[in-house]
Design goal:
The chain is an alpha/beta fold. 36% of the residues are buried. 31% of the residues lie in helices and 28% in strands. Helix 7 (165-173) packs antiparallel against helix 8. The protein has helices spanning 29-45, 58-62, 74-83, 96-100, 103-114, 136-143, 165-173, 177-184, 200-203, 288-306; strands spanning 2-5, 17-21, 49-55, 88-93, 117-123, 149-153, 157-158, 161-162, 188-195, 209-212, 222-230, 233-243, 254-259, 270-280. It starts with a strand and ends with a helix.
Length: 310
Amino acid sequence: MLITRGFKPSRTAARGSVVAIGNFDGLHLGHQAILELQARRSGEEGLPAVVLAFEPHPREYFAPQSPPARLMRLRDKAEVLATLGIDELRVLRFGADLCRWDGPTFIERVLNQTLGARRVVIGEGFRYGRDRSGDAAQLRAVGARFGLQVDEVPPCTIDGLRVSSTHVREALAVGNLREARALLGRDFRINGRVMEGTRLGRRLGFPTANIRLHRKVSPVHGIFAVRVSGAGLDQAPAVASVGTRPTVGGVERILEVHLFDFDRDLYGRRLGVDFVAKLRDERYYPDLESMTAQIQLDARWARELLGAKG
């Protein structure tokens, strides 16, 4: 899959493309419905499939003091899109310049000139352009001038709940991983590279692989039963913490993973951590002894939930 940025015309612009537009944060079931229709249209028309996304997330730009929790980093999103057969991921910088464009300008400059779109696939309620003034009706009317057709995908619902990135974030925030799994169609995952730590966990008898979150806001907090893949691991059972480690004076929020019955060096390796169940919230302990005792209980509970003997 080709990853491109900015407004330089795509190498397939002259030929045309089928474009899916959105932030696709989390690539939940609603996003998957959009991409499934895009794949079908792409096959029917013999045109490449292009995903148009924006960085930063528009809500990060408009409300920098209260940004949404990122479900996926751009790299993670790109890796999943590549497995779905997307030919190109075009990333536009969301900032003051783009925000000034009205809907017709966006259609002409981005969809027509940059991507050569012949068909656009969007979710119901998709808005674009200055003050979010553009909608599907405008997209059809203005796009017709350029031979552009529009498919609007109806909302995906589960038990009456509309599937959305917001609802995934809400489920994760309260530790409802079962609901998040239903909305995503899979376990929530955080990917990252293992960094050098203080080795305190090893001294306490619980060596951990430490991973930076690279997010302004984490969608999950607390202690979890997880499964880990990558670096030769395949859904290996583990217990994990996402927090600041207040007992030892930590400041940065990081992901710490203790793999059961595993003692290999993972520094610099990239791992995927799937969150299966939340055990509890992070707490402050008066000393390392009481913290270690709780970690032992957490590990035992996580083993039971994951069916890992030990």
